[in-house]
Amino acid sequence: MQPLSKILYPLLFTETLERFSYWGLQSILVLYLLKAVNLPIDKTYLIFGTFTAFSFGLMLVGGIVADRLFGFYKTVVMGAFLACIGNLFLSFGSLHLMYYGLALIVLGTGLLVPNNANLLGAFYIKGQEKREPAFAIFYIGTNIGGLLGPLAYGAIVLYWGWHATFAVSFILLLIAVFFLYYLRGTLRPQNEIDSRNGYFVYGGFLIGLIILAFFIAFCLSHLSFTNLFIIPLVAIVLIYFGVRLFLSERKERLELASILFLIIICLLFFAFEFQVNSSLLVFADKYVNRKLLSNFTIPASDFAAFEPLFVILFAPVIAFVWKFLATKKIEFSTAKKFTVGFLLSAISFYILFYAGQHAATHATKISLVWIMLSFLLLGLGELFVMPIAIAAVTKIAPEKMRGTFMGFLYLALAFSGYLAGSIASLTGSKSQNTMDVYNFIGVYHNLSYCLFALTFVIIALQIAFRKTFNSF
Predict the structure, then answer these.
(1) Where are the beta strands (DSSP E) in 43-156?
(2) Contact (CB, 8 A) for 43 and 50
(3) Chain mean position to CA 450
(4) How far apart are CA 118 and CA 231, in angstroms?
(5) What is the CATH number of the domain that holds 403?
(6) DSSP assignment letter at 297
(7) CA separation for the pair 330, 2 (Å, rounded)
(8) Whole-prediction pTM value?
(9) How far apart are CA 29 and CA 427, in angstroms?
(10) Residue 7 and residue 459: Cα distance in Å, rounded?
């Protein structure tokens, strides 16, 4: 096995650059569509939700491609290249090319993200104690990109305009492609499938990519069409798991049930979490006092950086806590961690409800303190959910289908993204490009209580199925 530093840190670097580009785009997409493209607010939120849904949904396809065709390494390289070209399309400033640029970013994200994590997991023996701390460090890279991307994009928009941001992402992702190619001898696992396929396989894959790109671009520009396949897709996933559960032996059945539990939890959690890049950005733009030292106004897109900032700051602390508890033989199961994550997020949304109520009652903008406290709790909640879920899937999924089931985990985030867009559209006014603060108050009041209720549901499930949940 390669030393940890020769595997973890190159993949950490790649993850950081890709997440810089993706979350930078996420931080300005809603504001870009509202202010630069001049789209209505309800259509803007639905484009955001559809883009997010496809970004995560195609990760299932990326997992299957890696498992069946090219292996983790080559799939990661192809994903970085497609995202690079997508940002190049966006930088031209054409509305027509915008949809195709977003489609290529979706395809690149789907190929790269799940397989970058699986590429790291392939170098660890199943059950190895260093697996979870390594993924905690890896997750820091995700959030460094999530922090620097919004901050950089906000500054670039301020001084050079919207389209310069996409040119920067194009350059950085091009660097990532060359970096991955240079380290190809180190980053390809010894037990990875032989990916020296013939021209027929590569040609068929290229045709499939072109068809998918046109289909995604069509869905982004014709949003009503998206509704026609979201529900059938959910049904197909549930039927797949049902058939696999029925045909599997008892041990594998427990593993699949555990993965299904992880998927449902992540779906619900991130439907609320993705408000950070949609309705909360518009709310911050209109109703938060963004002035610092009376001279500088924080760009609204920079607010998307607060939550990953807190993740970066506290991820090492949380990783140390897990390691310390393990040395003391103290059990803290995955289900218990999820419970804490939901509870923290529920409190976060209640703070937002309180802050919005104060803004409406006193006809004033809310203080930075409230929204930063809310994002702090959201970041802590995420640390109790996503890195734990990723590590669990790489541990309990069947070895030959690990990429596929990692794709299923990210498919849950696809449904979360689509649901997040629908939730965000409830907070806005369809008649004008502004946020209705009273709608915001009502929606976020309901969200906080939904999260409180889900917390107690998880506790009940943990008690009822404690033997299963305590095993991973």
Answers:
(1) none
(2) no
(3) 21
(4) 28
(5) 1.20.1250.20
(6) E
(7) 31
(8) 0.78
(9) 17
(10) 37
Element (H, E) at 25: helix 4-35
Q: Give the DSSP H/E element, type plus range, for residue 175.
A: helix 162-182
Condensed to tens digits (0 to 9), the pLDDT of residues 376-397 reads 888 888 888 887 787 777 777 7
CB 66 within 8 A of CB 118: yes
DSSP H or E run through 296: strand 296-297
Instruction: Domain count for the chain, please give it.
Output: 1
345 vs 335: CA distance, rounded Å: 15
| CB-based contact 422:48 (threshold 8 Å) | no
**Residue 103 structural domain:** 4-469
pLDDT tens digits, 67-76: 778 878 888 8
Q: Measure the CA–CA gap between 77 and 108, rounded to whole angstroms.
A: 9
Three-state DSSP class for 128? coil
Neighbours of 343 (CB within 10 A): 20
Residue in the block written with tokens 């309180």:
354
Please report where in the chains the tokens 């905690």 appear, as a residue: 136
What the block records as the tokens of 324 is 């310390």
- Whether residue 418 contacts residue 53, with contact meaning beta carbons closer than 8 Å, is answered with yes
Helix (H, G, I), strand (E, B) or coil at 435: strand
